[in-house]
Amino acid sequence: MQNKYIKKILEADVYDVAIQSPMEQAQVLSERLESEVFLKREDLQPVFSFKLRGAYNKIRQLDAASRKRGVITASAGNHAQGVAMAAQKLNTRAVIVMGKNTPSIKVEAVRRWGARVILFGESYDQAAAHAAALCEDRGYTYVHPFDDPEVIAGQGTIGMEILRQHTGGIDAIFLPVGGGGLICGVGTYIKYLRPEVKIIGVESEGAASMWAALDAGKRVKLDPDELDQFADGTATLQVGKENFKLAKDCVDEVIRVNTDEICAAIKDIFEDTRTISEPSGALSIAGMKKYLERADEPKGQRCVAVVSGANVNFDRLRHISERTEIGERREILLCVTIPEQPGSFRKFCHAIGKRAITEFNYRYADKNSAQVLVGVQTNADYADKKALLEKLGRKYSFIDLSENEVAVLHIRHMVGGRSMGLNNERLFRFEFPERPGALLRFLTGIGSRHNISMFHYRNHGSAWARVLVGVQAADDEMMSLRRELRDIGYRFWEETDNPAYRLLLS
User: Fold this and answer.
1) 486 vs 438, which has greater pLDDT?
2) Domains of the chain by range and CATH?
3) From the candidates 51, 191, 198, 385, which is the catalytic residue?
């Protein structure tokens, strides 16, 4: 199988549309990590993503009759633009099926390349099913985003370029993983010529389909209700069949990273290149940092990280920036109990010392005490954070909320305080598609039986809305309430026992 793919990669002429993307040394990251870090800049492709390579390689090999009938795919992101541009270059009709919740910036980007866009369904699975039905009905050729030998070979040309551009030694190459097209194409080529080079995939903790598959020894389908959509370009429920076969032989390890680590990696790329990566595009850097910071990994390694894309909505940058400081361990978010008396704020600030305060919210608790939600900047090293917490712990009672999603996403941005005399309030966190009518459907689903006592929504610029809602319901109403919430069809988590809520809002 490996020999077959090497031949396909060598024959994959993608340069009618793609560029040989530059590979640049990341000076800031190299110094910080005490290693040689090189960035393979696929974010500089004409569609700002590597996906163009595989799409073009697939379409260019179609016969004349197939090209005349046209091609189709389902995608809300980079693959859609890659197929659209490749089809335009090859004078082939392209149809792209996208979910109704796809941000308009992505829809318009695809249309600019001349493709016909069909908006269908609320998820990728629904869009893909509709595309498959149209493919069978109209005779289109389906261009799969990853589970296709020609697509995999097209992405493999990146591996060919890496060895051409970096003639010295390489210890490890880090690649983002969604369905597996990129890592399998690059990994197969690199392992054939340089088997000593480690091929390391990186996935979001909430969308780690390749990690799950390699761990189980078979393809695993993730729960769609639990799939993390933050790094939407790699949020895949299941890796491809062909991809899994190849990955078993060419992938050495898969590292999982969280949202804050991804945001910190976006900042790292910006500091070295002055460009802004999309979350999926920064996965490789987040994973590389985690890998090099492990105690058993030696310094001075030579690493290549593929920056896979830069298609990020501008209005997501606020959310990314907020979470970056926590991802770099330069901000901690604390809920601190202080005495309710004159001079308490001054004494508390004195205890913090000469540090930058990023957040300071006061919540009255009772006549004797108050709750303060405070964000404090610290140095990136763990020792500085530990020293501050030990100092505060000698004088105050506090809880570290730095990794509490309710606190980070919602409560730190909410105003007001406790609602006195409010009974039977239950707290829920929801995610639902960001599209017209979604909020109305949500409120209609709750119905009029239960009073909404609190509501907080923030637009993060992604395809998913995130909402924190308080609902009044007695104990004997909880079973019916949960049934009603499940029937709405949006994923949710109960957060009534969350300490951030208990201390600051209940």
Assistant:
1) 486
2) 2-49+149-322 (3.40.50.1100), 51-142 (3.40.50.1100), 329-403 (3.40.1020.10), 413-504 (3.40.1020.10)
3) 51
